Amino acid sequence: MSPVLPGTGPVLGIWAHPDDEVYLSGGLMAAARAAGRRVVCVTATRGEHGTDDPERWPPERLAAVRDAELAASLAALGVTEHHQLGLPDGGCARQPFDAVVARLAAIVAAVRPEVVLTFGPDGFTGHPDHRMVSAWAEAARNRAAPAARLLYPRLTADFADTWRHLYDRLALFASADLPWRAAPDRVAVRLRLDDALADRKLVALRAQASQTAELTALLGVATMRAWACAEETFVDALPARELDFADGC
Predict the structure, then answer these.
(1) DSSP-derived 3-state class of residue 239
(2) What is the pTM of this model?
(3) Among candidates 46, 51, 135, which has minimal Cα distance to 98?
(4) How far is it, in rounded angstroms, from Cα 137 to Cα 34?
């Protein structure tokens, strides 16, 4: 198998909620593991408020379910190393910035990643927790592994246009200027998942049934696979002063 990413060193993903990691980088993680690379995942929250029915799914019950689902999902991708920070779902912005960065920096220092995966400053969907995790992850990487490559997930223009009807239907993005799309010359990694890799990602997605079962039933398995398991695209992080000019298109 040719490498998805140059190099052979560890890959570290830093995400906000259970299921962020598989939607945005499940194929990349599985491909990296298949190539013999170490892959470590960090999740900031347990996703305890990720429901429209809090009476049926009170926070502690849902958190426990999502812990088990995430473990099964990562196992399907071949990922065995996971760190759960246990921060409040929906409350990342209220956490002490330096203290969280210190926790993450300790993990970064221990893993010594060659590649760090996380949200871009937009949070991909605009979710406040995603945006906060992006800032924490970049600060922790800068402190503990400044030479590590920092990659953000992005949609390409053609992919975003193909699935615009679905994004509009599901109202996935927080504002009309999202999603930020990768300019062609900014695409650093574009992974087109083959059938085997797409199937593994679909299994990992469906393992997180509290979040994906209803969506899969709504869309149908074939559409879910074609949309969520076809490709993953990433851009290299730029200095903050360059982001406004280079990221959106």
Answers:
(1) coil
(2) 0.93
(3) 135
(4) 25
